[in-house]
Design goal:
Layout lengths: L15 E2 L11 E4 L39 H13 L6 H10 L21 H12 L23 H17 L6 E2 L1 H17 L15 H7 L2 E7 L6 H8 L9 H6 L6 E6 L3 E5 L13 E4 L16 E4 L11
Parallel strand pairs: 3-5
Antiparallel strand pairs: 1-8, 2-4, 4-6, 5-6, 7-8
Helix pairs in contact: 1-2, 3-4, 4-7, 5-6
Length: 327
């Protein structure tokens, strides 16, 4: 599928680079389905046209001449809005319309969230990792359902809290605002997790012939990160899987980028004892802090256990970034 974040804004084309590595398993059978709408897999359909740290709105092309003195780029593009309003089409007109719509504007390079973890403080990073992430790696999901009888059940409140804390720890490292889990989205994601668990497979578009199929579960699969681990998955372990984004089909680290979307505000999580689904496409806030760069690993002190086996990534907070010469 072609994935969009939310509202009416089409996010910029993904621009990122990383050190790529094929890595071994976690001591168990684990798998991630290539991120929602990402290229490189037969499951996800069309290549993505959105990136987890891209912004909507126009950006001047490199080398383009400045507008005449007294006007500037903004004035020039406002003038273009008037021309486009007369019916002209094309990429420039679409960008101009977004520029002319205050609701479509976002702040680029706004810096880290003021409440983010101070990654220059070694003691603070160590303490936060132990309390927010490491503890959840030992927390079971507390699954109450049954794959054999297609009872979706639920995961425990303790597990959902541990998952959310681990997810928000990764966002805080990157200087991003925290997200919350919505009870309604949790229920939808739970049906998706049941389908993945009962079939021992992952798909963003499961067919009606799947065991434990429901329309809600299938629809939510199309807007979620999906993970499967046998014999079991843990509350924070699933977040580490998504952030590592292992496997040849996850070169574009789509799961990671969805989690590190600066504008995300609400997600939903559902887990069985061996599968997880986290709905990542949902409500957002374009006024959230939008750092100029979002990397993984993050800068300064970084927890060594979370180093993604060489699969590093760097995302730009603006559509004009050019990584073509990156090494």
């Amino acid at each position: 599928m072609t994935s969009h974040f939310v509202s009416n804004r089409t996010m910029g084309k993904a621009l990122l680079t990383g050190l790529l590595a094929l890595v071994v398993g976690l001591g168990a059978t684990t798998s991630l389905l290539t991120g929602v709408g990402q290229a490189g897999t037969s499951h996800s359909g069309a290549p993505t046209t959105s990136g987890a740290d891209q912004v909507a709105g126009p950006h001047a092309k490199a080398g383009k001449k400045r507008a005449k003195k007294g006007h500037g780029k903004k004035a020039k593009k406002r003038h273009r809005v008037k021309k486009c309003a007369k019916g002209k089409r094309g990429a420039k007109c679409r960008a101009a319309r977004r520029f002319g719509n205050p609701a479509a504007r976002v702040t680029v390079g706004g810096g880290r969230w003021a409440g983010a973890l101070d990654t220059t403080n070694l003691a603070a990073v160590n303490a936060a990792y132990k309390s927010e992430f490491a503890s959840g790696a030992r927390t079971p999901t507390g699954y109450t359902g049954n794959d054999q009888t297609c009872q979706a059940g639920t995961s425990s409140q303790e597990s959902r809290t541990a998952t959310l804390r681990a997810l928000n720890f990764t966002r805080s490292l990157a200087g991003l605002t925290p997200v919350v889990f919505d009870a309604g989205l949790n229920q939808r994601a739970q049906q998706t997790a049941l389908m993945m668990s009962a079939n021992g497979a992952l798909s963003h578009s499961p067919g009606s012939n799947w065991r434990c199929y429901t329309n809600v579960g299938a629809q939510t699969a199309g807007v979620s990160n999906l993970a499967l681990a046998i014999p079991q998955i843990t509350s924070a372990g699933m977040i580490e899987m998504y952030m590592d984004d292992r496997g040849a089909s996850n070169i574009v680290v789509g799961h990671r980028r969805w989690f590190l979307n600066p504008f995300a505000t609400v997600m939903g999580s559902g887990s069985t004892d061996k599968a997880n689904a986290i709905q990542v496409i949902g409500p957002s806030n374009p006024n959230n802090p939008n750092p100029a760069w979002v990397s993984w690993p993050t800068s300064n002190y970084f927890p060594a256990p979370l180093e993604p086996n060489g699969r590093w990534s760097l995302s730009a907070g603006h559509g004009g970034a050019d990584f073509s010469a990156a090494q």
